[in-house]
Design brief:
Structural class of chain A: mainly alpha
Helix content of chain B: 10-25%
Shape of chain A: globular
Strand order of the largest sheet of chain B: 1-6
Distance between the termini of chain B: 70 Å
Number of strands of chain B: 6
Oligomer: heterodimer
Number of strands of chain A: 2
Strand content of chain A: under 5%
Helix content of chain A: 55-70%
Structural class of chain B: alpha+beta
Largest sheet of chain B: 2 strands, antiparallel
Number of domains of chain B: 2
């Protein structure tokens, strides 16, 4: 006859926590039964992280060699394929340099967070290369950029005004990424990564659809994600514009044929321009002084704007969100209890403690939102200042801040085709 | 050297300095292999809300049910195996708590039954864990299977976990198990 062991009748809630005590005694087997030896799969080893870093440096070096010495798009294109294959599909695109930005921010603001060494290198190495040679990382090493590069066929241009306005988005994205990472709210870049779902062949449908739309766009417009979204690209463009070596379209003299300009997918080639109306020096100086005066004004205005909205923004943090849910529940007891509040109550949540936590988060937000606002304001002011400067050029030149080193212009330049 | 070049050189030196300073400062934040992070569920904080099944980036969640045999009571009427209102204690699908039939039941000796999890079938819904935790010893628990986990920079389940049970752990305790305690 089967012995039946009765259910112990206990309330669901009280048992959630009381798991340590065993309700049923350990069985004393007489048939010589032995406990099964269960092993679980082990995590990916350090080896892969080391290989990531080695390949990162090797591929960036290859791109530098291909762009500066060999002057060959074919080599850069091949590294793009390797990057999409290895960093994209094989390593499923995580951790990437774009995302490492958040780990670094978190490490700077949170003393308890330990930054893995390879994440630090993944963050720093592309910046070091950008400071030396320009955006070699964007060129054929970043899987996000490489994926768009591989399928780009045509490059329809947006008008300069639209393009300039859109180029503010990466900076706003960067500011919010830093804000959310520094306050431990969420990793915005990881959530909004459009291509990770494609690399992993599954995931959040909204993001996959967004990624597919971006990919379809990138057939017709060069690298829409890199140009108008990527926050790490915005950071790299600063270092790239100050780079030690600058890429040249041709090592011979430019014949102003404009073919390179037509070939550039990211609109990174300055056209030659001579100022048609000669401006007096004092007018120019006056404009620069005015723009320089506007710069701190923009910075302060945006800082204050975000500071005033810091409480609204702070709802992105779990603790503040939970606190508001709990308070809403208290004010309206008829409201249906959601899982968060239910769990909070079941675990004997203390509302005062939660309030103290939420207030601390709000204080953090007040500070970091101001900082993020200042960053956005400064960039707006600085861009206006830059656009107000007129500079005459006689030949076609590469704008090293925007150039993603795809190498297309090398093949288009007729001077490169002639023998020395 | 004209003014433009001078400004650019100053900018480059400043940028280089910033990179060096940031790099130096951040190096003190790294901690060798201990700094490596893997996602794990604290089984004692988990409330089996069911979000592990739905919120993982993988089509079938990397969270699976684990079984700590040394905690298990080997009951015949198992709160994790059978639905609460079960009449006959047999292996018929309509009696089972697990929607995918991932729990295997094997007779050991009177009156004990051994339960094992087929991880390839488990979807991490946590229904059995809830049953076992409420009515049994709590030997079934949810945990992140490390060879399936993509080690996302930020775990999407951790974002929505109501009890903040999902945490970063270092390599040496890559598994938080119940029978180790």
């Amino acid at each position: 006859m089967r012995k039946r062991i009765l259910f112990s009748i206990a309330g669901m809630m009280s048992t959630l926590l009381a798991m340590a005590e065993a309700r049923f005694p350990k069985p004393d087997f007489t048939s010589g039964y032995e406990y099964p030896d269960i092993t679980h799969g082990v995590p990916m080893e350090q080896f892969w992280n080391i290989l990531d870093i080695v390949l990162l440096v090797a591929m960036m070096s290859v791109v530098v060699w291909a762009a500066y010495k060999k002057r060959s798009r074919a080599v850069i294109f091949s590294t793009s394929i390797l990057s999409v294959g290895y960093f994209g599909f094989f390593r499923s695109g995580c951790v990437c340099s774009v995302g490492s930005l958040q780990n670094v921010t978190l490490a700077m603001t949170d003393p308890d967070y330990h930054l893995p060494w390879y994440v630090l290198l993944i963050f720093l190495l592309p910046i070091v290369f950008a400071l030396l040679f320009g955006r070699v990382f964007c060129s054929g090493v970043c899987p996000l950029g490489a994926l768009q590069e591989l399928i780009n066929v045509r490059n329809f241009r947006l008008s300069r005004a639209v393009s300039s306005a859109l180029s503010m988005i990466p900076w706003i994205y960067l500011a919010f990424t830093i804000l959310y990472a520094a306050t431990r709210s969420q990793f915005l870049v990881c959530r909004l990564d459009p291509f990770i779902g494609i690399f992993r062949l599954g995931g959040d449908w909204g993001m996959i659809i967004f990624g597919v739309i971006l990919l379809i766009m990138s057939v017709f417009i060069g690298r829409p994600f890199c140009q108008y979204l990527c926050p790490y690209g915005a950071l790299l463009s600063v270092f790239s514009s100050l780079s030690w070596k600058k890429l040249e379209i041709t090592q011979k003299s430019c014949i102003n044929c404009a073919l390179c300009d037509k070939s550039c997918p990211v609109d990174a080639i300055h056209q030659p321009q001579s100022s048609k109306t000669k401006e007096s020096r004092s007018a120019g100086v006056r404009r620069i002084v005015l723009m320089s005066a506007l710069l701190p004004l923009f910075t302060a205005a945006c800082g204050i704007l975000l500071h005033q909205h810091s409480d609204t923004l702070s709802r992105a943090h779990k603790d503040v969100y939970l606190y508001e849910l709990v308070m809403a529940q208290q004010n309206d007891p008829d409201m249906e209890e959601c899982i968060e509040v239910e769990t909070f109550n079941a675990m004997g949540g203390n509302i005062d403690e939660l309030k103290a936590k939420a207030d601390k988060v709000k204080d953090d937000y007040a500070f970091y939102a101001t900082l993020a606002g200042c960053l956005i304001g400064f960039v707006i002011g600085f861009k206006l200042l830059k656009w107000s400067l007129k500079r005459s050029r006689k030949t076609y030149e590469i704008d090293s801040a925007r150039c993603t080193m795809c190498g297309k212009c090398f093949n288009y330049c007729p001077q490169n085709l002639t023998k020395k | 050297m004209d003014r433009r070049d001078f400004l650019r050189t100053c900018g480059a030196i400043f940028a280089g300095g910033v990179v060096l300073a940031a790099g130096g400062m951040l190096t003190t934040k790294t901690k060798g292999e201990e700094g490596d992070v893997f996602w794990q569920i604290d089984p004692f904080a988990c409330t089996q809300c069911g979000r592990c099944e739905t919120d993982c980036v993988l089509p079938v969640s990397a969270v699976k049910c684990f079984h700590a045999n040394k905690v298990c009571g080997y009951c015949d009427l198992c709160g994790g195996y059978y639905r609460p209102s079960v009449k006959d204690l047999n292996t018929a699908a309509e009696n089972q708590m697990c929607p995918t039939g991932a729990i295997q039941r094997k007779f050991v000796e009177e009156p004990y039954f051994e339960y094992t999890i087929d991880e390839s079938l488990c979807n991490g819904c946590g229904k059995c864990v809830k049953g076992c935790t409420s009515f049994g010893n709590g030997s079934l628990f949810l945990q992140v299977l490390q060879d399936l986990c993509q080690q996302c920079n930020e775990c999407q389940i951790a974002r929505v976990c109501p009890s903040n049970a999902i945490q970063r752990v270092s390599y040496k305790d890559a598994y938080k198990l119940k029978d180790h305690a």
